[in-house]
């Protein structure tokens, strides 16, 4: 997959792209014209401080830092969405407002605002996809990090409505993990689940089951169309 070929872009490479995009492209990897253009714009804006690291599986940035914007006006969510719209070619989406849902805003002791955004598609959240936009007290975006799966609109055209309901999904999950001592009622929430590859997307219920006999907090991914269990793991982490 072409997206796997992208790698770390540091400031010197970004500057090379600005001065000589064709030779830098040959040196780096193949990027689209719109990606080149937005990288050049970011390089100009950052004054040579730009750093980008690419997610090798998804082909989208996992980390961007530098002086990434001019001072932005409005509430933190408005600032974050405006900035993401300015670099949407790097993430391959059409509209930040339609693509992200606010999860939280945290302001630290330095006045830096950390805007946490969930990726949504067809009003359904995407499991594991989240971007955090870090904005200083002057409204300047300083960094963005997180995971983002591109092209989900294209890869979910036939995955808009579940055939199972949440109760069916919970039943399938219980049959799979066979818990011995369930605490509370299991819950099920609908997600898009890009697994095992970003372009292989399942509409899935994520069922949470607490089994105190193990102990375990099972996360069981039940295909909302077929009813198959496609993935599961114990979310309880043990410290040594």
From TrEMBL:
Question: Where is the secretion signal located?
Answer: 1-26
Cross-referenced InterPro entries, in alphabetical order?
FTP_domain (IPR011096), Zinc_Metalloprotease_M4 (IPR050728)
Identify this protein by name.
FTP domain-containing protein
Q: Which Pfam families match?
A: FTP
Q: Where is the FTP domain?
A: 99-148
Which terms are listed as keywords in the entry?
Hydrolase, Metal-binding, Metalloprotease, Protease, Signal, Zinc
Q: Which domain of life is it from?
A: Bacteria
């Amino acid at each position: 997959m072409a997206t796997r070929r992208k790698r770390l872009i540091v400031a010197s490479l970004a500057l090379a792209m600005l001065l000589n995009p064709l030779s830098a492209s040959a040196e780096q990897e193949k990027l689209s014209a719109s990606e080149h253009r937005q990288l050049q714009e970011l390089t100009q804006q950052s004054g040579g401080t730009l750093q980008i690291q690419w997610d090798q599986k998804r082909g989208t940035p996992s980390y961007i830092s530098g002086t990434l914007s001019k001072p932005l006006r409005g509430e933190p969510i408005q600032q974050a969405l405006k900035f993401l719209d300015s670099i949407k070619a790097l993430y391959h989406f059409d509209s930040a407002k339609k693509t992200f849902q606010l999860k939280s805003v945290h302001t630290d002791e330095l006045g830096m605002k950390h805007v946490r955004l969930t990726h949504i598609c067809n009003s359904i959240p995407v499991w594991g996809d989240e971007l955090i936009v870090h904005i200083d007290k002057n409204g300047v975006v300083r960094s963005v990090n997180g995971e983002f799966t591109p092209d989900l609109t294209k890869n979910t055209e036939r995955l808009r409505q579940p055939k199972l309901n949440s109760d069916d999904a919970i039943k399938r999950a219980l049959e799979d993990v066979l818990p011995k001592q369930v605490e509370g009622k299991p819950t099920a929430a609908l997600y898009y689940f890009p697994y095992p590859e970003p372009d292989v997307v399942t509409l899935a219920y994520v069922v949470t089951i607490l089994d105190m006999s193990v102990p375990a907090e099972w996360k069981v991914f039940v295909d909302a169309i077929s009813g198959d269990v496609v993935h599961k793991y114990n979310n309880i982490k043990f410290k040594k």
